[in-house]
Design a protein that fits this description.
By secondary structure, the chain is α+β, with helices and mostly antiparallel strands. The chain is about 30% helix and about 15% strand. The relative contact order is 0.16.
């Protein structure tokens, strides 16, 4: 069944007519054209589709778009402001926390969610925050270092 839903993505209000069974991931990519949120496993296992929903990281492939109605949604495209990268994005670049880049948006969003709740995470907390995000190219140490560098930059 199709329904018009109201979504606020990256601070912009959108009215989208979509099937009520469509996931937030599908609507973000197919209706809004925001391709930074990746479609990996479509089962909540890889974290490539991580977005912030009401400030908290979620796997957008597991959330129905209708469940996100009227809640603020932030995708990777919504982090940079006035042409300047978010501190977590800057820290990931500075630490080489990427290889092929496919997992990077999900990692950044998971890290951003952590820093929203805990601005000074320990190494263990940073590691736990990205545990739901799979990277097949590199180890996770550079991601954790990036999170800790971003936390220091926010002091």
């Amino acid at each position: 069944m199709k329904q018009i839903i109201n979504l606020k993505v990256n601070g912009v209000a959108h009215q989208v007519e979509t099937d009520t069974r469509r996931t937030l991931l599908e609507v973000i990519r197919e209706h809004l054209g925001l391709m930074g949120t990746k479609k990996g496993c479509d089962e909540g296992d890889c974290g490539a589709c991580t977005v912030l929903l009401d400030g908290k990281p979620v796997n957008s492939c597991l959330v129905l778009a209708i469940e996100a109605q009227d809640k603020p949604i932030t995708t990777i495209e919504g982090l940079a402001s006035n042409g300047k990268l978010d501190p977590i994005q800057e820290a990931f670049v500075a630490n080489g926390a990427f290889q092929c880049g496919f997992c990077t948006p999900g990692m950044v969003m998971a890290a951003k969610g952590l820093l929203n709740e805990n601005p000074h995470p320990t190494q263990e907390e940073a590691t736990r925050a990205i545990a739901g995000n799979l990277c097949r190219c590199t180890g996770y140490l550079r991601f954790v270092e990036g999170i800790q560098q971003a936390a220091k930059a926010k002091v």
